[in-house]
Description:
Number of domains: 2
CATH class of the largest domain: Mainly Alpha
Number of helices: 8
Amino acid sequence: MTSPFPEIVCTEDTLWGSPRVDGRRLAVGDVVSFVENYGTVEEVSSDYALTRSQISQALQYCSTLQCQIDKPKVFCHNCSLRRQQKGPLETSGLEEIRHGDFVYVKGKDFLSFGPMEELLSDWNGQDWWKIAAERLIDMRIELFGTQDQN
Length: 150
């Protein structure tokens, strides 16, 4: 059976098996994040040397939760599905330290810049599939060149 997303692959030897753009070290979640933060396909395409097809497939792959069907070794590093895989962050050995305006979290063999609240938010990740679905709707003309005829 042919994959509906031929430009998206999961290989254990690259990005720990996360879904990624074929031939690149860009996880699907990274592409969704770029689209969310940049706002246009053209900017993402230009800045990261991605084709419209690669961007479209990454958004579609993510929005349909294809990763749950493909069962990669790990989900994208910034996705809430990966955090569910790994479980909660062990915070018992961590301490938030404030030094003037500078705040960081320190533990044995661990350092994170910013407050504990930010660390926990980052650890929990994003529901990228929801964001990908929203961006597909918002960018359907830019990505596919068509407009709904309703």
